[in-house]
Write a structure and sequence with these properties.
The protein is α/β, with parallel strands linked by helices. The protein is about 50% helix and about 10% strand.
Length: about 450
Amino acid sequence: MNYTKATSLEEVDNAVRFDVPILPDHEFFTDFSDVRGDFEDKMIFRSLNVNPRTFVFNRKENGSNKSLLFLAGMRGSGKTSELGKIAKKLHRKDGFFCVVCNLDEGLDLNDMEYMDILIFQLERLAEELNEHDLQIKKDIIKSLQDWYAEQIKEVNKAIKREGGFEIEVEAKTPSLLSFLGLSAKLKGNLAGSKENAEKIRTVFKRNFTTFSQKFNYFIEEVNSALRKLEKAQEILFIVDGLEKIATSDIRKKIVDDESNRIRQIKVNTIFTLPIELFSLEPKLRQFSTVVSFPFVKIVERDGSLVEKAIKRFETFVTKRIDKNLFDSQDTIREAILYGGGSPRELLRILEYTYLYSDDDADKLTKKALEKAVKKLGAESSRYLTTEDLEQLKVLKEKNEAGVPTPFEDSWQDLLEKLVVLEYNDGTYKRVHPIIEASQLYKHYVG
């Protein structure tokens, strides 16, 4: 679908789609990296041993030092767009061969394990190598392809015992295309029959030490080939979408329970980290780097406005919607303040403002914005409990007193639901302005 700037009211809905990540080469892209408080994108580059000015990977000093980075942020903070910008800068012959793995496009979000992600990573790598027409020696592919075939035979034995349909495997000369076919069958069964998925995972996990060795050997051989072809110094995987996985239990199992397996895989990798798992930071820091990716702070704890950030959001809005479609600049500004520093939440507010616009006005008006805020406030606060509201009252009092908010497990659910928004290093939290506008919040908190 084509996303272009709205110059008429009828085009607004398409221009404010918040479920489609915007990459750096798109006209809608807005760079917020210098208005995110403590966060600076050079933290990511340095964690990957990359010069933040030239984007050159220092392989001489870090050839055996594989970086594992978790980018932790709330849903809607703009992580995918930020990673897209980073991948574009790093994908170069003196940098990385970047392979983006969007989990929501490749796997079953309702049933997933770390093993599924690894198989998907290898498939995506093979796809990218094939797409760029990079010739990899057949004996490099053969070792991994033969091992895959052996594991599928083990899986088929288990399936056959229970009378299920076996996974078909054809004997083919090793190549990127033949490996892709084999990998696609595996991934298809992981996302298809739950029974078959469990059998695949059981076999692969039982032989994980060998699998990790095969994986790491394959990666190093491909790294060597990329250097000889002068395409890149090493592979960098960007695994995005963990926060979209259906349940917090599945997400926690992948990151926490499988941490020992994650450590055995030796390849430069960036994972996005769901906000409710940020409490695992002390454990993850033992073998990786964790970088917090906060919302853009547009209001200080004392209530003063951060004008530079607000101006950046004005650019964000007017790249998508012609400013003449608003009845005033104040309407744009008010919508930004209600968004709380979240690009996605601001787009949601603009979508509802469009839905409430008068047919005769041909503009996005302050009246329509007020209706949108009232509706969103009611929807967002509907399931708040008395305990939640008491906690929000405490948060309000702490912010008014200028007191940092310490971490407590009880915040996680409110953060995950975007009832509470988090900024800087995590000690500054505030209630979502949409929640503050709701009648329920006003009644119980004030």
